Batch of 2 targets.
Target 1
Amino acid sequence: MASTLAEKIIAAHVGRDVKPGEIVVTSIDAAALQDGTGPLALQQLEELGMVQAHITNKTVLFIDHAAPSPRKELSNAHMSLREFAAKTGVVLSEINEGVCHQRLVEAFVSPGDILIGADSHTCTSGALAAFSTGMGSTDVGIGIATGKTWLKVPETLLVEISGEFPRGVYAKDLILYLIGEIGADGATYMALEFTGSGASSMSMSERFTLANMAVEAGAKTGLFASDEKTRSWLEAHGRGEDYREIAADKDAAYARRVSIDSSSLEPMISAPHTVDNTRVISEVRGTKLNQVFIGTCTNGRIEDLRIAAEILKGRQRHPGTRLIVTPASRTVYIQAASEGLLEIFAAAGALVTGPGCGACVGVHGGILGDGEVCLATQNRNFQGRMGNAEAFIYLGSPATAAASAITGEITDPREFLK
Amino acid sequence: MILKGKAWKFGDSISTDHIAPGRYFHLRTNLPELAKHVLEDANPDFAAQMSAGDFVVAGRNFGLGSSREHAPRIIKLAGAGSVLASSFARIFFRNSINVGLPVLEVDTSGIDQGDELEVDLEAGTVRNLTKDKTLTFAPLPPVMVKILGDGGLVEHFKKYGDFHLEQGD
């Protein structure tokens, strides 16, 4: 039977062909919890008398959402994760390591894997041709203890990408455009599969940005076939032996197809308070900003920081606009430091923080004031997302964020890239 | 099972940030406290004024966003009998079943704030007693009926010690 990427990966785990809509109980290869969802998962396992881990080397407990801890309640929650890791031998990712999704693609997830994570952006690893999906604490806790989960085999929406990005337009603009087109529930219960010449020519960093935001269209995961770029990524992170070639069959059946020509895109913005409230940048340019935030699992990679630094080098942030830069992981932080990027940011008036999720999820490290407006490179702009329901969040690319930090208002990055 | 209560009406795109705001992240290990803030940013009166058994009634894509299972847990803990929405986001829907909160996909456009509702989970009907109208909803997938019937995924595991879900089980 001709299979989509999602069907192929699930079928390989259950040992038979599968079709969309069918319920399977499947083995998993990797599981992840973070400090917001982990304590509840571990509490469920205690209640079940199942304080155990089926897979230890690819079960990872991340302390990233409140790292380092800003409150004693969270310090205590962190202790419960450390205790579980010590008892069971699973991997603990400490406060210095960075955002779970970035760490998962750097060090843990391989093509063909099934990863479940108690964090909705677990779909990021789909860019490595892994079926990776977000679930709740109980689902992931039980997955950790038993090595299994249940899944409904999803239908697949094929996103066919052609063309190359014009200068000043990036993967972030493409995914915002797509979500604006199909809506925040346009792919509910479906897998996205990115294909076409435009997908093949994308770097892994760009692919992670697309896969990361699959859930913002309601999707279960966002998949790319593996190729030489996947292999190079794994080799660069010391695990070339994990490479496997995984591609959809040519005549696989897709529930829907959407085509995007990258060369026709412009910088895009999501306006408050939903991700699918998208605008071409010219519609919102000039919006005054109190804060700009560059980082997160969506756009906190070295390539993102290079783009932002290219614009910010030798320039200053607007005096009325705070700028926070957060590398996604320790690895990214070290690389950015060695390339002199952190110095460029600091010289431009940015606060460079350690890696983590805090500002994006409204826990600490960048909470907005009443009526304040922020442009962020993250994946969500829901009311209250950055810790204050009275604030307003716009989403854009790292280039748009850097340009806007200089002018203090939403600015087309192409003005700085001539 | 018959559920009876009053409708609390919410709009479209109610996210998990509305249901369990990030600024209360530190209360995630204290669900009774977190439940006092449930849906606070969508309706500040809801948590304090709702009665046990009342329904959360919303529009499209309820529960979009984060995987935080705390969201359906605190709706249940606050005492809501069920969530009725025109559509749901996937992770929220699955989490609700796992924690034993009935979630019903039904056209909510004709339900107003304060309407008295009676939900028959087996028959698949919502009777709007205030408006004297009956709506029907599609039954849950069998796998979810099984988990919900057991009282959630933890109870399911207490009963069977494993997944007991696939066709033919």
Note: Residues 6 and 57 of chain B are 10 Å apart (CA to CA).
Target 2
Amino acid sequence: MKDGPSTTEHLAPVRGRTPPGEFDRLRAEVEQLRSQEKRAVAYVRSKVDQLLRVIGTLPLRPEELDDATLLALDPIGILAESFAQILQHLQEVSEDRAQARDELQAIFDSAGTAIVVVDSTQRLLACNVRARELFFQAGGETVGRYLPEVFCDPSGPSAECVYERIMRTRSSHVRDDFLYGGRHFHVVGTPVKDKAGRVCQVVLIYTDITARRLAEQALREAEARLKTILNTVQAGILLIDAETHVIVDANDVAVRMIGDPRERLVGSVCHKYLCPEKEGQCPITDGGQALDNSKRALLTAAGGCIPVLKTAARLSLNGRDHVVESFIDITASKQAEDALRESEERYRSLYGNMHEGVALHELVYDASGQPVDYVVLDVNPSYERILGIPRTRAVGARASALYGAGEPPHLDIFAEVVRSGTPACFETLFDPMQRFFSISATSPAPGQFATIFEDITERRRAEDEIQSLAYMDTLTGLPNRILLQDRLSGALVRAEREACLVGILFLDLDRFKSVNDTLGHAVGDLLLKSVADRLRECVRKSDTVARLGGDEFVVVLTSLQRELDTTLVAQEILGRLAQPYAIGDRDIRSSASIGIAVYPLDGRDAGTLLTNADMAMYAAKARGRNTYQFYTDAMNRRALERLDLENSLRLALKRQEFFLQYQPQVNLSHSRITGVEALLRWRHPEQGLIPPGRFIPVAEETGLILPVGEWVLRAACVQGRAWQDAGLSPLRIAVNLSGQQFKQPGFVDLVRRTLEETGMSPELLELELTESMIAEDAGETLNRLSALKCMHVHLALDDFGTGYSSLSYLRKCPIDRIKIAQTFVRDMSTDPGDAAIVETILAMARSLNLEVIAEGVETAEQFGFLRSRQCNEMQGYYFAVPLLPQDVERLLREGSVPLAKRPEGHV
Amino acid sequence: MSNASQELIEIDIRGQICPSCLLTTLREVNQRQAELKAGEVSLRVKTDSRDATSTIPAAVGNMGYPVTVEKREGYYLILIDGRPREGAAQGGAMT
């Protein structure tokens, strides 16, 4: 092509020399070449235009570029080269984009915020790592998840959904506080639109602002707290600009104390109110102090002046120097201080001139905090005078050394005064001086006490004198009628509280008048003194012997348990007073009559009781003197009977009036009699059979129970041995013990000896105890029971359920058997409560592995009830009454279970 | 992005009309492509053809060069700037 344009130039010089044929051939050839060139140029132009179109510009116009220039310019080459560059650039751009996408992904995943991208149907398109951690902890595929299923909590508050809002407004939306899973999120939602402007994706960015929220809340709370403190604190607080001295802020107390509204305070110069006298001389800003702590005056709006204690300190707020001044009203403390000083001076002069001794002490404590001594801190002149101890020796000295004896006097009283703050007053004999003091103690300060004391020795002596004149019989030295009334009243109050008896013995000497008349008053007085002495010897210290006047005396016996105890004292007195009196050179004989009244039977007040005793005394005199008489007939009768019974009882053993009956105990499992209970009987020669309920208490009161009990034990053992020898099947014999018997020393030996001497098998002897016997003195009781147990003696607990039934002693004591008390058995078929008790006892015995026997079984109902509850041992009239030995023997030989009233279908 | 060490090459194609100006400019760009890409030169094309103010930036832009057009008194100044590759990568991330 480069040669094209030169072809025609090259041909021109040969024109004219060329033959015509040749010329035409050449011309045709030229034409052909020209047309070829034209086609070539056209081709080039069309290709260039095509390329230009691709590149985005207009086609090439011929006038713009002639053919020759066109070919020289080589546009195809240029364009091809440009296209190569375009392609290269495209490739570079593509690489850049791939890299950019990777970068974006990295940023996306490393973002601290959770990012979720959803499509227009709320399906998840993508989410970053943080979003997966926060919202998809369960793991699994996240893409395709339906957004409301993840976030929307139907139970939560229905705030407008960010997503829905974006879809509606087609613009970004922010939600400040979105709660999810207990955390707060700041949510930014941004729509992504397609070319048509429709929202095709939504990008949701969740920033966890929980910490910020909490911090904000904490900050708010702290601020509120500070503000509250600032306004509650009992000090006025002003914040002052250090440069201008202008008040910047004031708390409520400052506003209240000054009395100007806050608006006027703020903006005012501080000197207007505080430290006004030295305007411009601020210790902080002018004096260069970091802290000022001084008493100042506060000027109030009303023109008043309040003394305050002011503290000022420099501080920097927002980069600016400030002074914070706080002040408290010290009017009250200033007044108190002054008052205290005055009062101290007043009291000092008062104590100094006081007639009474005054001392201030301080307690001394040991390491454990116990007061052990006290030290003298101060004393007044009267102290020195009264005690004879100079101030110099007293102050600083310990009471234990100062007051002799090594023991600090009345430490417990003073310690209590200090502890409780309650003053104490008491009178005491100060041994080293043998003088009485009246002391009052108060505690003026913690750990300290002040004593005010006075020597009352003289007063005390005078008082004693007066007292004895007023309350004592001058002749005998016994209490007179007035003191008697007093003592008796006191005894009655005590007796009521302790539920015991008081005996009043009214005593009159027989024929005293004739002694006075015949031997003279002097002898009569001596006789009365002797009587008084003898009466004193007949009673306990707690009792009272009084002389009413003339030959009348009253004896008050306190805290008695039994009415008849009075008779013992009365007999004693009669016996002693009947002894001869050696007065001068003669023996005088006398006797007395005694009337007895007993509280509360014969009266409840001192007057009534004395009157009734007096009346009884006249009755005694009428009965023939030298005797005593109760106020009530019933009492007299009982006293007589009791005396009689006691005398008979003493003889009963000797006269062999006691005998034993045996009540069979039936074992239903073996359908036979396996035991008997020995029961004591007393046949009085005149009165016939006396019920045990009458004579056992007397035997116990008189102590006769011991020989009687010993006899019972021996008799039962002798009988047991006799039955053994007679070849009867082994029969257990139960013997009741009394408390005194069980407690008497050597009781275990007595049992052992009795068994040995009678030859009775120990395992056939059963001793019945009561709950009260084993409940007291547990240790000693256990020893006894164990000793008995070692001898193989059976032990049974009688009347079970009526005393203190403690499971713990039941477990501890080696008891073999319990006897259900008759009272429960009697009513159990009618009283559900008693039935329940019986059932409980049975169940308990089973679980403790104890044998049980029910006593007092009298009816078929009772029998049936017990039987149905597996109570296999019984005793009572239903089977047999207490029998004589020969009757028992007969029953045993018959070998069957006795039934008093044999009901159908049983046994 | 131009800096002090850059060489300024000016092509005055006033009087030429498009697409001839385009071709002229492209030829210049092609010839200088290595220097342009190294950021060693930048081209200032003076033209009075309005068409060229759209065709030249489009074509040269597609080839990966930043192009700016400024209107001057009686002509347009088209500035073709060479720039280093890493700058292109950052620019890509932004788009």
Note: Chain A touches chain B at residues 52, 55-60, 64-65, 73, 75, 78-79, 81-82, 85-86, 88-90, 92-93, 96-97, 99-100, 103-104 (CB under 8 Å).
